[in-house]
Specification:
A three-stranded antiparallel sheet has the order 2-3-4. Strands 1-5 form a two-stranded antiparallel ribbon. A hairpin with a 6-residue loop joins β3 and β4. The protein contains three helices and five strands. The protein has one domain: 2-Layer Sandwich (Metal Transport, Frataxin, Chain A). By secondary structure, the protein is α+β, with helices and mostly antiparallel strands.
Length: 72
């Protein structure tokens, strides 16, 4: 899996129908009807760890192929 930046992940999730509910501190919270609310940590200059990215995608039911289709 390629390295994933937090802000780009948020933009990709928004393209997939999620909305940013709030951005408090270093975390952005997104939601979509029918999916659990998710929190994405945003730390400038750092990529998200692979396990975290896979966990978020699993929680919201999005395949890696579909995610990376809108990520780039």
């Amino acid at each position: 899996m390629a390295s994933v930046r937090a802000l780009r992940m948020i933009k990709a999730l928004v393209r997939l129908g999620f909305t940013v509910v709030r951005a408090t501190g270093s975390h952005h919270v997104l939601e979509k009807p029918g999916c659990p609310r998710i929190s994405v940590p945003v730390h400038r200059g750092k990529a998200l760890k692979e396990g975290l990215v896979r966990g978020i995608l699993k929680d919201v039911g999005i395949s890696e192929d579909k995610f990376f289709g809108v990520y780039y």
